[in-house]
Amino acid sequence: MSIQTAKEVDDEAAAWALKVDGGGLDAEPTAELQNWLDGDPRRGGALLRAQAALSFLDRARALENGTPQSLAQPVSRGPGFTRRGMVAAGAGGVLAASLGAVAFLAGEGPRYATQLGEIRKVSLSDGSTVDINTSSILNVALHTDARNVVLHRGEAWFEVAKDPKRPFLVKAGVARFRAVGTAFSVRRMNEDAELLVTEGRVEAWLSGSDGGRVMIDAGSKILLGPDTPLRPESAPDEIERSLAWRGGQISLGGETLLEAADEFNRYNRRKLLIDNPVLARRQFVGLFRTDDPHSFALAVAATSGARVVEDAEAIRLR
Questions:
Q1: Are 223 and 141 in a shared domain?
Q2: Alpha carbon 300 to its chain's center
């Protein structure tokens, strides 16, 4: 079978977007649509762009009915420019230029950010909630056909309200995640992203990759990146400990002291430093507050014979 051109992918995506919008599909994707999506890694993104373009057009019509013509003009359709043609243009990424003042309505949505050490809970209008970890930045855009999140930095846990007609999509670097109603966390590390699923199932894939998609079940995790395989791992206990931050805690279950120090340093300006490499490799178990590296250092000293040396900038274990 010959490889489709980008325009052919966009044209097919436009047709599917119009079919979904017109009620020609059930709430859950049909086998035919799923087979089409699975046939080319470019198709998922093209469909989302086409659906976003369709949403733009719907909003533009609303503006035409109640907004000064100066705002509506950029999306007016000339002779021979069909609705499907405009949606296909949106799938190809060129519609935004013609939307002008309307484009901001369906952008990345509100931005949420946390400072160092801050943990924040956000309630979304669709009934979903987001717990945002320290030093994180994300945008959330709730549209009529999709709920889109862009995780620019850090980590967030999502408890997604069920809505089969509006998939919940998270973009983190090259990683992509899709859910309908479930609970999961995403942590971005440069271009890599780690997914931890606590409830339901989450679909994961890499943007622009021909390696397919994988479903991650509750109690499993996966690391996605340009050089990582799509290989989920069952780790329910590790996931529970990794998400202790939602309660303002760090749960250690055998991590090395160096790994523990790195975790505390995510939340505190005064850094925890381990001067001795042998000590840094020792493992530790315990539950501590994210904002209390001092108590952790004292516990390590009591069990290992290390010395704690503190100043205004650091807590050192020697």
A1: yes
A2: 35
